[in-house]
Amino acid sequence: MTTETTSGKTDPYEAIEKLGASPLWRYYGELFTAEPRSKAVPHLWSYRDLRPHMLHFADALSLEEAERRVLMLVNPGMTEPPATVNSLYAGIQIILPGETAQAHRHTANAFRFVIEGEGAHTTVNGERVHMRPGDLLLTPGWHWHDHQHEGDGPMMWLDGLDYPLINALEAGFFQLYDRRTQRAERPDDLSSRQFIHGRLNPLWLQPDHVNSPIGNYPWSETHKALTGIADDATGCRYDGVVLEYSNPYTGGPVMPTVSCRISRLRPGFDGAAHRHTSSTIYHVVSGEGRTEVDGTVLEWGEKDVFAVPGWSAHRHRNVSKSADAILMSYTNEPVHRALGVYREEPAE
Question: Of 127, 109, 119, which is closest to residue 154 (Cα–Cα)?
């Protein structure tokens, strides 16, 4: 059947649409933009406001009703499917004393940055990795993992995943373990203890050049690194004294799609503005300040989370004249660099 216009002639645009084709010239400006346009918008999630709701749902919902009690931090510009910035996701998870979380694995890479609580651990591929505030725990893609809380009081952490990217690539797999929790098959925290000495790496282990072999980057060591150099280091005019958690074998990011970082903004730090194609999610470990993102001002305090979309002009400021501000962040920069599309420039 042919498609005709009111004049009796076939409409060629409707005809080619039925054939599964479309004219490039009608979409050229949308497909090839002069510069990146992110769907994500600058946004801040207040931990002080979210925490009571976390406690409510932990008390109101059983593990049968909500296996993972997580509040997703959904960017207003990326609600369907939910994401925090382009290709990255953030959520806040809570687990109560005596509870466990079902062991599973997925293609998406994940990490946990502990916000509050003690006495819980994550078991990753048979190794129990203990959690303390400020610790960064890795769960690389397709690694079995479960959680168990044997301490007192609620345990909360920031979940970071790259599932928006993995799903966009149509490469996502998910599998439940045949038991609720794994048996411990290795000494506790062995992966961290074997690499805690920095440049002294175990020669008997087979290097993993994709993911870091370290299960936990403990806050005690992170804090030691910051305090050991920060008074003398020049730092970066954009991000202060910023360090990257790295794979000890490669010196690169902890996982192929995610770079995790920690930065110290000295008292009164007033950073320069810049932009880069990669998107970044920040978690405030301590301190208070403000970040200006394309004219939007995000006022942040301890334990808050905020998003800086890709190619957004942004600058950080520590509003305190006497105390440091410490920011943990993670970014999809490794993906941009691997694909050769990373770009960065001053924005002043």
Answer: 119
How many CA atoms, within 13 angstroms, populate the side-chain half-sphere of residue 78? 23
Separation CA 136–CA 219 (nearest Å): 7
For residue 235, give the nearest of 226, 224, 245, 222 by alpha carbon.
Answer: 226
Of the candidates 145, 170, 144, the one whose C-alpha atom is nearest the C-alpha of residue 157 is 145
Q: Are 84 and 258 in contact (CB under 8 A)?
A: no
Complete DSSP assignment for 208-265: -SSS-S-SEE-HHHHHHHHHHHTTT---BTTTBEEEE-B-TTTSSBSBTTBEEEEEEE
Q: What's the distance, CA 228 to chain centroid? A: 26
Sheet holding 314-318, edge to edge: 296-300, 289-293, 314-318, 274-276, 344-346
From first to last of its 348 residues, the chain has per-residue pLDDT tens of 445 555 567 899 999 999 999 999 999 888 889 999 999 999 999 999 999 999 999 999 988 899 899 999 999 999 999 999 999 999 999 999 999 999 999 999 999 999 999 999 999 999 999 999 999 999 999 999 999 999 999 999 999 999 999 999 999 999 999 999 999 999 999 999 998 776 678 888 888 879 999 999 999 999 999 998 878 888 999 999 999 999 999 999 999 999 999 999 999 999 999 999 999 999 999 999 999 999 999 999 999 999 999 999 999 999 999 999 999 999 999 999 999 999 999 997
Residue 341 carries which side chain, given as an amino acid letter?
V
Which one-letter DSSP state was computed for residue 134?
T
Report the C-alpha gap between 256 and 137 in whole angstroms.
16
Residue with tokens 């690389």: 140
In whole angstroms, give the CA distance from residue 141 to residue 131. 20
